[in-house]
Amino acid sequence: MKLYGYFRSSTSYRLRIALELKGIEYENIPVNLLESEQKGEGFTSRNPFGSVPMLEGGGRDRAQSMALIEWLDEAYTERPLLPADLEDRYTARELAYAIATELHAPLNLPVLKYLRDPLGHSQEEVGVWYRHWLSRTLDPVEARLAQLGTGDFLFERPGFFEVVLLPQVYNAQRFDFDFSDKPHITRIERACLALPEFQRAHPDNQIDSPEYNGEAPR
Amino acid sequence: MKLYGYFRSSTSYRLRIALELKGIEYENIPVNLLESEQKGEGFTSRNPFGSVPMLEGGGRDRAQSMALIEWLDEAYTERPLLPADLEDRYTARELAYAIATELHAPLNLPVLKYLRDPLGHSQEEVGVWYRHWLSRTLDPVEARLAQLGTGDFLFERPGFFEVVLLPQVYNAQRFDFDFSDKPHITRIERACLALPEFQRAHPDNQIDSPEYNGEAPR
């Protein structure tokens, strides 16, 4: 498989974690979002959404990260990301889709750019916007985790929820979001980052990252 | 089952269509978003997201519309919303999740309110914002439908994609979005609205709608 992505794109990061957790080999092909490579015709003819990640594999180019993750888990049944039990599946999806549907888009690069131009907002106002929407979804995610009595992961091992959570936390840290009142999210993040799958998927360990030190496994 | 929703909420509308298409009986309980009923403690103690729809059923309160729809389709296997074939499932989810993850949140009421206050934008600027994000996702959705050679529905009968598409189109029409260059979306919308399941789910036919004429079946 070939994963077209960008080291810092949170949806690309989701896919890297999902592929790593499932043990699926892939080639990482950087797409430079800052130079709008994803909007070039060579790219949009394959993916009309003009977005990363795009996964080439199984005879097809696929473009939407959540649809991709659901497909991966159905097509490659070993090391499932979603638990087997129906109620647990709902729980994992509730928390993952809260982040993916409510929170991701208002924080995504195109929206932040639009706030600056044409709407004319300052970087400080954009930061306030960013942290406002983070609280609005991560507060109830934390509350649900507390209700559920979560340990190091939502279930026994990291899966569907952690695939979506970790990239959002990474993103939030770049905007100085305060996680001190979120012990469950913080504990899960630490437990994930201790695992080699999450380390290999981390933005800093991608070849298009300025942090890349040449030692990452891909 | 009890569906807590608001007639005009597009995520509540998704759930009504899903329940109707699956033939699942439910009681519709209006929650007045304009009076912030969903933020009252009686509600948030059951649903920390303070959002509609909330579905009470199967011994649990469930809160996130996409997780709910995935759960409904797994728990009630008759009249599936997702097709059986893995590739078709990816296709349905790609288009549905494009709308649910990229498009829904920037158009949702809390974001539109925030643009007016504290950001101070006019109703006209909010309208430009709204139509900008609509184009950005509905243009590639239309392009994918053209690539796929779609008929009256994405597949033989309406399902997962139409559940998400119809509420977004209804919403867009309220903001005078121009669909004249979107023949595929327009044709699918018309074919859906000709069906009794979509008519019963329509916002105008809910008891909390000012359009309600007392003749809707619930």
UniProtKB/TrEMBL annotation, chains A, B:
Domain GST C-terminal: 85-211
GO molecular function terms attached to this record: glutathione transferase activity; maleylacetoacetate isomerase activity
GO cellular component terms attached to this protein's record: cytoplasm
UniProt-listed SUPFAM superfamilies: GST C-terminal domain-like (SSF47616), Thioredoxin-like (SSF52833)
Record-linked InterPro entries: Glutathione-S-Trfase_C-like, Glutathione-S-Trfase_C_sf, Glutathione_S-Trfase, Glutathione_S-Trfase_N, GST_Zeta, GST_Zeta_N, Thioredoxin-like_sf
Ranges where the GST N-terminal domain occurs: 1-80
Enzyme class: transferase
Documented EC number(s): 2.5.1.18
Domain of life: Bacteria
Keywords carried by this UniProt record: Isomerase, Transferase
Pfam families: GST_N
Coiled coil: none
One record GO biological process: glutathione metabolic process
Family membership noted in the UniProt record: Belongs to the GST superfamily. Zeta family.
PANTHER family: MALEYLACETOACETATE ISOMERASE
Protein name: Maleylacetoacetate isomerase, Glutathione S-transferase, zeta
Organism: Altererythrobacter epoxidivorans
